[in-house]
Write a structure and sequence with these properties.
CATH superfamily of chain A: Transmembrane di-heme cytochromes, Chain C
Largest sheet of chain A: 3 strands, antiparallel
Strand content of chain A: under 5%
CATH topology of chain A: Fumarate Reductase Cytochrome B subunit
Oligomer: heterodimer
Order of helices and strands of chain A: EHHHHHHHHEHHE
CATH class of the largest domain in chain B: Alpha Beta
Largest sheet of chain B: 4 strands, mixed
Number of strands of chain B: 11
CATH topology of the largest domain in chain B: Alpha-Beta Plaits
Number of helices of chain A: 10
Radius of gyration of chain B: 29 Å
Shape of chain A: elongated
Strand order of the largest sheet of chain A: 2-1-3
Number of helices of chain B: 8
Distance between the termini of chain B: 85 Å
Radius of gyration of chain A: 20 Å
Strand order of the largest sheet of chain B: 9-2-11-10
Number of domains of chain A: 1
Chain lengths: ~220, ~300
C-alpha cells in the first residue's frame, strides 16, 4: 500500500496529553473502584498497596480526572455538537457495525458514536464526582445524613458501571477502526482514513475551514 | 476488633465462599438490657472503657446527662437519656444503653467491601476485624441503628464487640459484669428471651400494659435485646428505630446490582472480542487513500490558479 506523504493532524499535543491524563486516571479509578465494589475483584486493591491505600487514593484520582475531563470538554465540546448527520448515521448503525462504509452517510469530525461517548462521560463524570464527595468518608463523612450517603453510593456505583460500559465501547471502537489509536498517540491520520470515516471533515479541511496547519508532510 | 479469636465464623464480609460450617453448632448468645431496671449510673460505660482500653477525648458539658454526646471510635456504648411525658401527664425518664445490636442479619457486614473485615461468629456476635478494615464507611451506610464510627486517626471502623474476647473464654461482657442493678444480663438467647418474658409479665402486672421485648424480626432478631416499658413505641427511647431494617437502597446495591454489573462488564468485553473475530477490523483501503489524496490535491489547485 502506498504511504501517503501528507497527513492530517487530528489531535494536537494539548489534546493528546489531556486525553491520556484522563485515560490513566480513568483506568486507575476503574481498578481501584471495582476492587471496592465486588469481593471477587478485591485483589485489585493490591495494585494500590492494599485496601486502606486504595480507599485513600481513589477519591484523589477522581479529583484529577474531573479537572482533566473539564479540559477535554473545553477542547472538544464544539466538535461534539449534535447535528442532522448524526441521525442519519445512527439509522445506518447496522452498516457501521459490519464495516460496510459505502452505505454509511458521510459525517464530520465526529460521528454519532463518538459524540455519544463524549456526552455520556460529560454527564457521568460530574455525577461520579459529586456522589463521590458525599461518600468521601475522611472529609465529608459527617457532611450529609446516612440516607443521603446510601443513595449517593448507589448512584456512584451505577454511574461507574455505565461509565465502564461506555469506556469499553470507546476502547474497542478505537481498536476496531484501524489507525484511530495513532490519531491519539502520534496525533495524525491519513487522508484515506479521513475519507473513509469522516468524509465531511476531510472536505472542510480541504476547503481550508480549519486553517492550513492541520495538513502537513508526514513525519 | 482482633482476629485472635477462638470462635468460628458463620458470616464473613465480602466473601463469595461459605465459611467453614462444620463446627457451627453453638448456642446463640444474647445480651438483655432491661431498660426498666436501669438507673443511668454509667457503670457499663466505664466498664466498657476499662476492659477495652478505650479513652475518648474529654469534651465539654453540653447541658445533658449524656456524656459524651455521641458514640465514637472510642465510645462503644453510651447511656442515652430521654424525658417523656406520658398520657397521664407524668414525667418518665427513659434511659437506654445504646451500642451495637449484633443483628442476626447484619447490614454492616452486607455492605462491607473488605473480605473478612466484618464477621459473625457461630454464637451470633458480629465483630469488626480491624486489620482488614479499609475505612470506607460502607458499614455506616449498611447499619440500621447508626452504630459504627470511623476513626480519623487510624481510619478504622469501631463498635461494641459484645466483648467477644471475654465471651470466647466463658466470661460475660464487661458491661454486664459492672451493672449494679442487674439491668444488663447475658446468656443464651433462649434463656434471655425466657427471662424477658417473666419480666414483661411482672411489668404488665404493675401497669405497664405495653411492656415488651425489643428483638426486631426485620433484621432477623438481634443479639442485644431490650425490655421496654413502651414496646409499642421504641422511638421514645432516644430514637431507637421502630422497625429497623437494612435500607432497600443498600439491599439493591449489594444485592442484584453487584453481580449484574460484573455480568454487564464481562458481556460488553466479550461482545467486543467476538465482533473482532467475526466482523474484524475496519481498515483504510488503498482506494480510500487515493480518494483522500485527490480531495486534498483538488482543493490545493483551486486555491492556487
Amino acid at each position: 500500500m502506498t504511504r501517503p506523504n501528507t497527513v492530517i493532524i487530528r489531535y494536537t499535543m494539548a489534546n493528546r496529553v489531556n486525553h491520556w491524563i484522563t485515560a490513566i486516571c480513568f483506568v486507575l479509578l476503574v481498578l481501584s473502584g471495582l476492587s471496592m465494589f465486588h469481593p471477587m475483584l478485591f485483589f485489585l486493591s493490591g495494585l494500590f498497596g492494599g485496601g486502606q491505600w486504595t480507599r485513600a487514593v481513589h477519591p484523589w484520582i477522581g479529583c484529577v480526572l474531573l479537572i482533566s475531563y473539564l479540559g477535554l470538554i473545553i477542547q472538544f465540546w464544539r466538535a461534539n455538537l449534535v447535528n442532522r448527520d448524526d441521525a442519519a448515521w445512527m439509522k445506518s448503525i447496522k452498516e457501521v457495525l459490519v464495516n460496510d462504509e459505502d452505505h454509511v452517510p458521510p459525517v464530520g469530525r465526529n460521528n454519532a458514536g463518538q459524540k455519544f461517548v463524549f456526552w455520556s462521560m460529560t454527564l457521568l463524570i460530574p455525577v461520579l464526582f459529586f456522589t463521590g464527595l458525599v461518600i468521601w468518608e475522611v472529609y465529608f463523612g459527617e457532611a450529609t445524613s446516612i440516607p443521603v450517603q446510601r443513595v449517593a453510593v448507589l448512584i456512584h456505583s451505577m454511574a461507574a458501571i455505565a461509565a465502564i460500559l461506555v469506556w469499553i465501547t470507546h476502547v474497542y471502537a478505537a481498536i476496531w477502526v484501524r489507525n484511530s489509536v495513532r490519531g491519539m498517540t502520534q496525533g495524525y491520520v491519513t487522508p484515506g482514513w479521513a475519507w473513509r470515516h469522516h468524509r465531511k471533515w476531510l472536505s472542510e479541511l480541504a476547503s481550508g475551514q480549519h486553517g492550513k496547519t492541520t495538513i502537513r508532510k508526514r513525519p | 476488633m482482633s482476629d485472635l479469636q477462638s470462635q468460628d465464623y458463620v458470616r464473613r464480609s465480602a466473601s463469595t465462599m461459605t465459611p467453614p460450617m462444620a463446627r457451627s453448632h453453638e448456642d446463640q448468645v444474647a445480651k438483655l438490657i432491661d431498660v426498666t431496671r436501669c438507673i443511668g449510673c454509667k457503670a457499663c460505660q466505664s466498664a466498657c472503657m476499662e476492659w477495652n482500653d478505650l479513652r475518648p477525648e474529654i469534651g465539654h458539658f453540653e447541658g445533658s446527662y449524656e456524656n459524651p454526646m455521641d458514640l465514637g471510635p472510642s465510645v462503644w456504648t453510651l447511656m442515652k437519656f430521654a424525658e417523656y411525658e406520658n398520657e397521664q401527664g407524668n414525667l418518665e425518664w427513659l434511659i437506654r444503653k445504646d451500642g451495637c445490636m449484633h443483628c442476626e442479619d447484619p447490614g454492616c457486614l452486607k455492605a462491607c467491601p473488605a473480605p473478612g473485615a466484618i464477621v459473625q461468629y457461630a454464637n451470633g456476635i458480629v465483630d469488626f476485624i480491624s486489620d482488614k478494615c479499609i475505612g470506607c464507611g460502607y458499614c455506616v451506610k449498611g447499619c440500621p441503628f447508626d452504630i459504627p464510627r470511623i476513626s480519623k486517626k487510624d481510619h478504622k471502623s469501631y463498635k461494641c464487640t459484645l466483648c467477644s474476647d471475654r465471651v470466647s473464654v466463658g466470661l460475660e461482657p464487661a458491661c454486664v459484669k459492672a451493672c449494679p442493678t442487674g439491668a444488663i444480663m447475658f446468656g443464651t438467647k433462649t434463656d434471655m428471651k425466657d427471662w424477658a418474658q417473666e419480666r414483661i409479665v411482672d411489668l404488665k402486672s404493675r401497669g405497664f400494659e405495653k411492656a415488651g421485648l425489643y428483638d426486631p424480626p426485620e433484621v432477623g432478631g438481634t443479639h442485644v435485646m431490650y425490655v421496654l416499658h413502651h414496646a409499642d413505641k421504641p422511638s421514645l427511647y432516644s430514637g431507637l428505630p421502630d422497625k429497623p431494617h437494612i435500607s432497600a437502597v443498600v439491599e439493591a446495591w449489594k444485592g442484584f446490582i453487584k453481580p449484574l454489573a460484573l455480568f454487564g462488564i464481562a458481556a460488553a468485553a466479550l461482545a467486543g472480542f467476538f465482533h473482532a473475530i467475526t466482523i474484524g477490523p475496519n481498515e483504510v483501503t488503498e482506494a480510500d487513500e487515493i480518494e483522500g489524496a485527490r480531495v486534498l490535491r483538488e482543493s490545493e489547485s483551486e486555491k492556487s490558479p
